[in-house]
Amino acid sequence: MKYIILIISLVAVAFGYSQFCVGFKDGFKEGYCYDRSLGCIAPQAPNCPIPRIGEDTYSGGWARGWMAGVRRSQR
């Protein structure tokens, strides 16, 4: 029984992390091209960071990626 609970929780964590990473990459692209012309081509997003507690959703990843993209575009 312990193993079943462990496996289910690992699958849930892995799914949440993957959604976070998808959101991070999407947010990075939008943040990088924020307030730029129509021809903006965003670079490849950096490696997905580890989500903070309560931030393991798509929207949490998107927000963190957007901030990283805006910071990167200002260099």
Short note summarizing the structure:
Helices cover 63% and strands 0% of the residues.
Outline the structure in words.
This protein is an all-alpha fold and 75 residues long. The chain has one domain (2-73). The chain contains 2 helices and no strands. It has helices at residues 2-32, 58-73. α1 packs parallel to α2 (58-73). The chain is elongated, with a radius of gyration of 15 Å. The relative contact order is 0.24. The mean pLDDT is 86.
List the helices and strands and how they pair.
Blueprint: H1 2-32, H2 58-73
Q: What is the count of helical runs?
A: 2
List how many beta strands DSSP finds.
0
Overall geometry comes to elongated
Distance between the termini: 52 Å
Helix-strand makeup class = mainly alpha
Residue share in β-strands: under 5%
Question: What's the Cα radius of gyration?
Answer: 15 Å
Question: What percent of the residues sit in helical stretches (DSSP H or I)?
Answer: 55-70%
Number of domains: 1
Mean pLDDT: 86
What quaternary form is this? single chain
List keywords for this structure.
75 residues, mainly alpha, 2 helices, 63% helix
